[in-house]
Design goal:
242 residues; TIM Barrel; 7 helices; 30% helix; binds iron/sulfur cluster
Length: 242
């Protein structure tokens, strides 16, 4: 079964606790959500083409038609691997929409999955092949869905599934309008699974900044129930990386 992929390239992870780690990124197309802050809106729908980096880290691309089959993708990942590269980052869009394809992907490298965590049944299918799971929790103010309660329930179930077998962390985008009240269900939900799961507050990258005071207050609020709370911005944007 082939897959619709938007781009394949080698870069430096810019988010979360693995910031600075070199990865081959495979960005899948399609997403069931519509977050107001989305920085990859071009990946929400199928475009019919994929840009592929010519050499690792060059930022120089050529374009091929999609879908791509598993052997093509595995071959491209191998071509873009380099001595300091450590993981294959499956990202999007929403990679779990492509769980059937991912399950058949034969690659010898550790898989780092970046997911909005909305599909627990697909997480269950893939959990044994995921080394690191970066799971989002959306907040009501993200405007990601009309069924927020259901999304949150699914996200927490997905986190619980990956936490059994993978190194798992949670990422929450903080907007200027985020409050303790809007963040509270995410904190309580993660605390009920495992208080040790790293919980990353990522201030949104936009012209409207989240104040350092707000970030500090939200960290302390989360820190009352969780043991590993961090604030990490999008560093790849600072470095002008992909
Ligand atoms: S889940 Fe990710 S890709 Fe999907 S709309 Fe939200 S930010 Fe964009």
């Amino acid at each position: 079964m082939p897959a619709y992929i938007n781009e394949i390239f080698n870069s430096i992870q810019g988010e979360g606790p693995y910031v600075g780690v070199r990865q081959v990124f495979v960005r899948f197309e399609g997403c069931q959500l519509h977050c107001g802050y989305c920085d990859t809106p071009q990946t929400r729908n199928v475009s019919g083409s994929c840009r592929i980096e010519k050499t690792p880290g060059s930022g120089d691309f050529y374009t091929v038609k999609t879908p791509l089959d598993r052997d093509e993708v595995a071959g491209l990942i191998r071509q873009l691997w380099s001595p300091s590269t450590r993981h294959v980052s499956l990202t999007g869009g929403e990679p779990l929409l492509h769980s059937d394809f991912i399950r058949t992907l034969e690659i010898e490298y550790p898989v780092y999955l970046e997911t909005n965590a909305g599909f627990p049944e697909k997480a269950r299918e893939l959990k044994d092949m995921v080394a690191i799971a970066s799971c989002d929790i959306k907040l009501p103010e993200h405007d990601s869905t009309d069924q927020y309660a259901e999304l949150l329930k699914n996200e927490l179930e997905t986190i619980s599934i990956f936490n059994e077998t993978s190194s798992t962390f949670v990422k929450v985008i903080i907007l200027p309008e985020t409050t303790k009240q809007s963040l509270s269900p995410a904190i309580d939900g993660v605390a009920s699974i495992d208080r040790n799961i790293p919980f990353v507050l990522q201030p949104v990258t936009s012209s409207t900044r989240v104040s350092s005071l707000k970030l500090a207050e939200l960290m302390d609020f989360a820190g009352e129930k969780l043991k590993d709370v961090r604030a990490i911005p999008q560093t790849h944007k600072m470095m002008n990386l992909l």
